[in-house]
Specification:
This protein is 30% helix and 38% strand. The chain has a 7-stranded antiparallel β-sheet with strand order 1-7-6-5-4-3-2. The protein contains 4 helices and 7 strands; from the N terminus they run H-E-H-H-E-E-E-E-E-E-H. The chain is globular. The chain is an alpha+beta fold and 159 residues long. It starts with a helix and ends in a 7-residue tail after the last helix. The chain has helices spanning 2-6, 19-27, 29-35, 126-152, and strands at 9-15, 42-48, 55-61, 67-78, 82-90, 100-109, 113-121.
Length: 159
């Protein structure tokens, strides 16, 4: 059990928006492209078939211009509450690396806020887990900043 815990990741954030909006920001490609990457990275391509069994793919560009590809498939989609999907890096050769499973759970908090819990496992190593912790941490910070821009009118309006 201790080994399993060292090869899993759990992060939490309180997001200053209602659950329905947070879920929409995770699942609407127009919004995902604006926030869903670590600091300095940009989403340059993305697609998602948001249903159990549906596939998703994303290409990120890092500050040096290098592109990183990821892909996976949705396992569970509960609107406003939960997303479960596989997550794998795609090598430059096109080979798909080992997959982990990411679970996003959303619950109500006081004041119209949302508790977001992200879990990811299993990792091949502690180093891989720690790298993902940094990347996801920055990505969740980007989500919080994007929500703040929505509140001030600095981000595109929701349709």
């Amino acid at each position: 059990m201790a080994e399993e815990n060292t090869l899993s990741l759990t992060l939490q954030r309180i997001i200053a928006a209602p659950r329905a909006l947070v879920f929409r920001l995770w699942t609407d490609g127009d919004h995902v492209r604006r926030w869903c990457a670590p600091s300095g990275f940009a989403v340059v391509e993305g697609s998602a078939d948001l249903r159990p069994g549906g596939e998703w793919a994303t290409t990120l560009r890092d500050p040096t211009g290098r592109e990183w590809r990821l892909r996976g498939a949705y396992r569970e989609v509960v609107p406003g509450q939960r997303l479960v999907f596989s997550h794998a890096w795609v090598e430059e050769t096109g080979a798909v690396g080992p997959a982990t499973v990411v679970t996003i759970e959303l619950t109500d908090e006081a004041g119209g806020r949302t508790r977001l819990v992200l879990r990811q496992a299993p990792f091949a190593s502690v180093e891989s887990r720690d790298g993902h912790a940094g990347g996801w941490g920055e990505t969740l910070d980007s989500l919080a900043a994007y929500v703040a821009k929505l509140d001030t009118g600095q981000a595109p309006t929701l349709h």
